[in-house]
Amino acid sequence: MSYSEKVIDHYNNPRNVGSLPKQDDNVGTGLVGAPECGDVMKLQVRVNPDTGVIDDAKFKTFGCGSAIASSSLATEWLKGKTLDQALEIKNTDIVAELSLPPVKIHCSVLAEDAIRAAIEDYKRKKAESAGGNGNPGGAQ
Amino acid sequence: MLKLPIYMDYHATTPIDPRVLEAMLPYFGERFGNAASRNHAFGWQAEEAVETGRKQVADLIGASPKEVVFTSGATESDNAALKGVAEMYREKGDHLITVLTEHKAVLDTCKRLEKSGFRVTYLRVGRDGLIDLGDLSASITDKTILISVMAANNEIGVVQPIAEIGRIARERGVLFHCDAVQAVGKTEFDVNRMQVDLASLSAHKMYGPKGVGALYVRRKNPRVLLAPIIDGGGHERGMRSGTLNVPGIVGFGKAAEICRLEMAGERARVGALRDRLYDGIRREIDEIAVNGSMEHRLANNLNVSFAYVEGESLLMGLNDVAVSSGSACTSASLEPSYVLRAIGTSDALAHSSIRFGLGRFNTEEEVDYVVAKLASVVKRLREMSPLYEMAKEGKDAGENRRSLQG
Description:
The complex is a heterodimer.
Chain A: H1 5-12, E1 27-34, E2 39-47, E3 54-62, H2 65-78, H3 83-87, H4 91-98, H5 105-131
Antiparallel strand pairs in A: 1-2, 2-3
Chain B: E1 6-7, H1 18-24, H2 41-61, E2 68-71, H3 74-88, E3 95-99, H4 104-115, E4 119-123, H5 133-139, E5 144-148, H6 162-172, E6 175-179, E7 198-202, E8 213-217, H7 246-284, E9 288-290, E10 301-306, H8 311-317, E11 321-322, E12 324-325, H9 338-342, H10 347-351, E13 353-357, H11 364-383, H12 386-393, H13 399-405
Parallel strand pairs in B: 1-11, 3-4, 3-5, 5-6, 6-7
Antiparallel strand pairs in B: 2-8, 7-8, 9-10, 10-13, 12-13
Helix pairs in contact in B: 1-7, 2-7, 3-4, 7-11
C-alpha cells in the first residue's frame, strides 16, 4: 500500500509525541484501542483553567503509519481549541486531511475516540475535584 | 557499494538468476515453437527444451522426468494434487489430513473439498511450529486418502519432519503430498528418501521465472492416479492440458540445475548471513522474540517480533528494505498472521512481527545496514509507543500488558 505525503510527513516528523503528567487536574488522558487489534493510542490534552482552551496536547501510538499520523494530526488540531470545538473534530475530517484509504478509516475513528476519551477524562476530573476536596490547579 | 533498496523478502519471490534469464531468452525469440507440434523442427526444438527442463527439475528432487508435470505455479500444483486425489480416490475414502499452518493454496483447497463432502483434519502445531507425529498417526483412519504437509513454512521457515511423515504415510497406505515450494533448492528434498508421493514446486521461489511450477506425481510404489482439474488437449500425459510455457520451463530447469549444483555452498553462505542478522538484532535490540523453532528452520529465514512496535509502522520506517510483516495492517483481512496464531504467538506480538527472507544475492554489508536501520527505527517507534511506556513504568496495564507477555 502506498501512503499519502501527509501520512509520511506525520510518520517521519510526528508532532507532539510525549506525555503530560497524568495526575495534573488540568490534563485529560485518553487511552483507546488494544494491542491485539494492532492499535493503541494514548492522547492527552492540557486545558488552561482560566480560558478553557487546550494549550497543549501530546500523543503516543502503537499502530501503523496511518494511526500514528491520525493521532499526530489530532494533537495539532486540538491545540488552541475549546473543549466544545475539540469535540467537533470528526474522524472524517482526519480521513480527508490525510487522504486515508478505506482500509485505514478505523485509524481515524480511533483518533476521534481518543480525543473524546481525553476530554471525558478531563471533565470527570474537574467534576470530581469540584465535588471533592476542592483542590484546584496543577499540583500532582 | 551498498545499493538501495535492499531485497530481503526471498520467501515472497526471488530475483531471476542472470544465467536463468540468458537460457530463456532464445525461447522468446527464434525458438518459439509449440512443444506439442509433432511434425516440424520448431516443435521438436521446443519439445527438446521442455524435456531438458523436465530432467533438470526431476534431478533436483530425485525423481524421474516422467514424474514431473509442469503447471502454472505451486498454487495450481496444490490444487491439482488435492482435488485430483480427492476425485480419483473418492471410492476409497473421504478423509484428508493437513496442518493449520499450510499455505492458503492448500487450506482453501481443503475448505472447498469440505464443501463437496470431504472431511479434513487440520493438525495443530507446537510453539516451535512442528506437528506432532503421534497426532498425525492418530488422525489416520481407514477412510484417509491423503496427507498434505508442507516441507518448510513460508512465514516462519520451520521445516517439518518430512521423511518421518513419509514413513508413516507409507506404512498406513495413505498418499502423501508435500508443498515443497520454500524448501526445494534451499535444502535437500528427495522424493524417494522422504517417501513423498506428490510434491508442489515453484520456479520463482528458486531464482526462476514466475508463472511456472511443477507437480511431482509418483509413478511407481505406489503409482499415483490423478483426476485432472484442467481438461483439454491431453498435455502432460493427460494430467494437465494446456500449451506448455516453453521459456518458463527452460528457465525453471536452469534454475533447478543451478540449485542442485550450488545448494550446499549457498546454504552455508546464506545461513551465515541469517545468523549475522539474528546476532545483530539480538545485540542491538532488546525485547525481541523469534517465532518458531530456530533449530528446525530454513537457513535463509528469520521471523522476529519486536515487542511494543507495530509491524506495519516498522516496515514504513524500513522504507529502503523489502521485508514482510505478520501484522494485520499489511493484509486486506485485518487479521494477524494465522501461522503465528497457530504457534501460540499473542496477537499483539503477531502484529509486531517481521519476516526476513535472505537469499543468493544478499551481502554482509546489506545485513549490517538492515540491523542498524532496524535498531534506529525500533528505538524511535518505542519512544512513540504507549505500550513501551507502560511496560517501562512497570505498571499493570491490565489486558495490554498481560497479552504482551502471552
